[in-house]
Amino acid sequence: MDAISFSGVTRTYGDVLAVDGLDLDIPAGRTVALLGPNGAGKSTTINMLLGLLRPTSGEIKVFGDTPSRAVARGRVGAMLQEGSLIPELTVAETVGFVRGLYPDPLPFDEILRMADLTDLAGRRADRLSGGQTQRVRFALAVAGAPRLLVLDEPTAAMDVESRRAFWDSMRTYAARGHTVLFATHYLEEADQNSDRVVVIARGRVVADGTAAEIKAGAGGQAVSFTLGAQPAAGLDALPGVVAVEIASGRAVLRTSDADATVDALYRKTTLDVHGLRIDGADLEDAFLALTQEP
Ligand SMILES: Nc1ncnc2c1ncn2[C@@H]1O[C@H](COP(=O)(O)OP(=O)(O)OP(=O)(O)O)[C@@H](O)[C@H]1O
Q: Which of 96, 204, 237, 253 has the fewest CB atoms found within 10 Å of its own CB?
């Protein structure tokens, strides 16, 4: 059974079409990144997945249940963009309280360990840094041992070191066979911490696969060479080429098939090609190509 299934899900806010006919199935046990620029529809998608917002049309299932039922049965843990802690409570009290709400929670010490909070157990919530607060929120999201963990831009307030520790914790949780869906607009985070990346833009899925597949599919490789004063005409018609840029006497061909492009460059053109370079796929280029306004 899929952990998550969206069929033809649309959500509007007045005139704004935030999610536009979303179809998405996520098998249990996967870690999936929902990657998209600001306003792409990530939070709306997540809020619908958690039963906090209703779709305007279409259907969402979470382990075969409606989102609200799945949440009520303790199957889903979430870390959203907002949500403050009770300032007077210590970390231990906060975790203990939330843990007590679930029928079959993780052991208390394990929650603290996983969120790297053992040393902060006695600290009041209002004396925590931004990154430490995020760690407590992560602890609360996993406290009930949910089968599905949903994280909406979880590292937004964190520095580099906290981010690394956070993703380690997330991977520890995912490695137990749990499903994780996280929203981000950080390409590197999507690339490094998921086994599937779903790119959304303007409320639609524009790419879906491993980071490597997305890079290849969006023409993320670049073949470049010294063009000098030679004419650039016809380069855009070479096999695989999706875009041509000329800068400082060098031609850069963005291509979905670097082998075919290079082969044709030598055999099918009369250009004097030297200084040839093939640069690895760059997810940033792929992401920009996929999400830019038409
Ligand atoms: N409550 C609301 N009322 C009206 N429009 C909204 C509301 N919430 C979101 N929107 C609009 O819906 C679209 C999708 O927003 P959403 O917050 O889902 O995107 P996002 O991908 O999460 O963006 P971000 O990365 O900035 O958090 C945007 O155009 C946004 O302006």
A: 237
Helix (H) or strand (E) holding 78: strand 76-79
Domains of the chain: 2-209 (3.40.50.300), 216-291 (3.30.70)
With bands split at pLDDT 50, 70 and 90, how would you rate the model's confidence at 218?
low
Dihedral sign, Cα of residue 72, residue 76, residue 80, residue 83: positive
pTM for this predicted structure: 0.80
**Reported ipTM:** 0.96
Nearest residue (by CA) to ligand 1, atom 3, is 13
Q: Distance from the CA of 39 to the center of ligand 1, in angstroms?
A: 5
The residue among 214, 220, 188 whose CA lies nearest residue 201 is 214
The pLDDT of residue 181 is: 97
Say how many Å lie between the CA of residue 19 and the centre of ligand 1: 9
pLDDT of 183: 94
Nearest CA to ligand 1 atom 26: 38
C-alpha 108/C-alpha 111 separation (Å) is 5
- pLDDT tens per residue, range 81-130: 777 889 999 999 999 999 998 889 999 999 999 999 999 999 999 999 88
Please report which helix (H) or strand (E) contains residue 106, including its range. Answer: none
